[in-house]
Amino acid sequence: MKRLFSFLFLIIGMTVFSLFLLSVSKDPLSPAKNEKIAHAGYESGQDLSRLALRFGASVPYYSTFGSGQVTDSEYPGGVARIFTWFDSSGCTVKAVRPANAAALLREDAFSPAGKCYLIGDMTAAVFEGELKNALYFGNTDAAYAVIYDAARSLESLGVLQFTD
Question: What's the structural domain count of the chain?
Answer without folding.
Answer: 1
